[in-house]
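Narrative of activities, Objective 1.

The group set out to show that a structural description can be obtained from nothing but a protein's sequence at a throughput compatible with the screening campaign. Below is one input-output pair from the validation batch, recorded exactly as produced.
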Amino acid sequence: MLFWYFFRVFLHLLSGLMTCVFVFPFIDVEKQQSKVRLWSQQLLEICTVDVRFKDASNGVIADRAVIVSNHVSWLDIFVINTLHPCHFVAKSDIRNWPMIGFLCEKAGTIFLARGKQREVRRIYEGLVHQIADGKRIAFFPEGTTSAQGKLLPFHANLFEAAIEAKVPVQPFVVRYVDADGKFHQAADFIGDMTFAESMAVILRAPRMTAELIRLPAISTEGAHRREVAQYARTAVLQELGIAEV
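Output recorded for this entry:
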């Protein structure tokens, strides 16, 4: 049974690659986003992950905003894509993942080498231009994944792109729960776990629900990147029910 699920994932990744290479160059952005949204929904269904959206923004929503979220798993990208197909900033390691790395690259993922300040500056300048061009940008300010129930400090550097582009930051919360509403530990993608190992754990586990929660947008007008990063982290902490540390 596990082999069959892996085979279905392989075929779905292959169909995504073919779409990026042979279809995307000939369709407009709106149609591309529609295909990304549907493809992401189908991938999550194969992985037996349901998505439940909750709007906790209190009406404070921005049409043009940089999306940030806590980071639990590689699943997060596809969960967010079911609502808002985005160009994600991701760690450069993902580019080397079999198939999915190439797929992310073709889908517009922006890869960032950790610990290289010059690289951060280059990526940041590129983000400003992409935001100005109307592209929806998203990143995970923790810089890496953390186990559910925890939230790492938010790195502030990339928040500067939203400030310079004069757009708000729209925080989201992603969490994965079981049938009883408790954290589903199979979603955790931490330590030295590989993509294949994480996939096997998810496919063996009982069905899970990914909760995607939109929080109120944060204005960046006249703000410092560290302030915006702290506001976003505090909002995420409160939604997750984690005490400030």
